Amino acid sequence: MTSNFPRVMSVNCIQGKYPKILLDLWDKYHEERVSQNDRPDIYPGKQFYIAMEFEYAGEDLESFFLESACQGLSLLAQVSGTLAVAESVLQYEHRDLHLGNILVAPIDNDSVELILEGNLIPIPSHGIKATVIDFGLARMSLPGGKILYVDFNSDPALFEGKGDLQFDIYRLMKEQTK
């Protein structure tokens, strides 16, 4: 058990033209941070979308200022513990973990608790909670043996990105795993 994945508030299937308000928000994000994704208005007017609403879980680690080494150690322990829980239960692999896919929020609790293989593991929070997000490239085994994953060979564009260390990592990963 871990509370360091975001809680899903709602999931909706929508069809139609991408809403202007969401395009405006996309543009604002792209101006401030530069998105590697296509602007969503490239899709036809009858496009289907899945809209997922998650609880607010803080700001990305790229933008968050850690106040102490203790907060850094807490963050590392929380993320590592969270991935260990998911790996134990689902044979989970994130496969796209970087600073933008870890959210950090201030909390009042003294600790964040995980349960790993029946063992309660309290992690001193030092005032922060880490949340792991973005499962688009993840791999996991579901009960019954079904494996969900993205076949990287089906999307060569994943290995063609430029301008960020994560794209170099993708290429290195591809070389190492052949």
TrEMBL record:
One Pfam family it belongs to: Haspin_kinase
Membrane-traversing stretches: none
Signal peptide positions (record): none
Domain of life where this protein originates: Eukaryota
GO cellular component: cytoplasm; nucleus
InterPro entries listed in its UniProt record: Kinase-like_dom_sf
Entry's Gene Ontology molecular function annotations: histone H3T3 kinase activity
Gene Ontology process terms (BP): intracellular signal transduction; mitotic cell cycle
PANTHER family: INTERLEUKIN-1 RECEPTOR-ASSOCIATED KINASE, SERINE_THREONINE-PROTEIN KINASE HASPIN
Identification of the protein by name: Protein kinase domain-containing protein
